[in-house]
Structure formats: structure tokens, C-alpha cells
């Protein structure tokens, strides 16, 4: 019995990977305990995602990094 053959496409799509130890060049990033995690284009979306994560895990230190000004701002949890 022949084994099925896995056919790979001729050209594989390039992977869009982002390293966690390098700050993004544009937009906003979620910084969790000093590590860059998720990249956002809109500051409102970044704030919303950070607040939701902070509600689930209040022990984390979550910041929003603004790539244009290279400033981190701490996200405060809602009581």
C-alpha cells in the first residue's frame, strides 16, 4: 500500500514574524511584564485589549508602547 504524499506549494508564503525583543517601528504595542506582545494600529484598540487582559490577570504589569514617540504608558485597571 502506498503512503499518501504531501504536496507542498511551489512558493511558500513569507512569514510575517515579529520578534518580542525588538520594539515596533510604527503603531502601538502591548507590553506585558517588559515584553512586546501584540501590535496595534489604533491606540483605542490597544487600550481596550490591555484593559481586558488586565481584568483577567490583574497581577500583570501592562503598558502601551507608542512607536512614534517611543514612550510607554502604564495601563491602570478599572475597579
Description:
This protein has 79 residues and is of the alpha+beta class. Helices cover 18% and strands 25% of the residues. The longest helix is centred in the middle third of the chain and has 14 residues. The chain has a four-stranded antiparallel beta sheet, with helices on one face. The mean pLDDT is 85.
Task: Summarize the SSE layout with pairings.
Blueprint: E1 28-32, E2 35-40, H1 43-56, E3 62-66, E4 71-74
Antiparallel strand pairs: 1-2, 1-3, 3-4
Report strand order across the widest sheet: 2-1-3-4
User: Count of DSSP helices?
Assistant: 1
The topology string of helices and strands comes to EEHEE
Distance between the termini: 64 Å
Give the rounded overall mean pLDDT.
85
| Shape, per Cα inertia axes | elongated
Low-confidence stretches: none
E-strand count: 4
Approximate strand percentage = 25-35%
Q: What structural category characterises the helix and strand content?
A: alpha+beta
Main pleated-sheet profile: 4 strands, antiparallel
C-alpha-based Rg, rounded? 18 Å
Assembly form of the protein: single chain
Residue share in helix: 10-25%
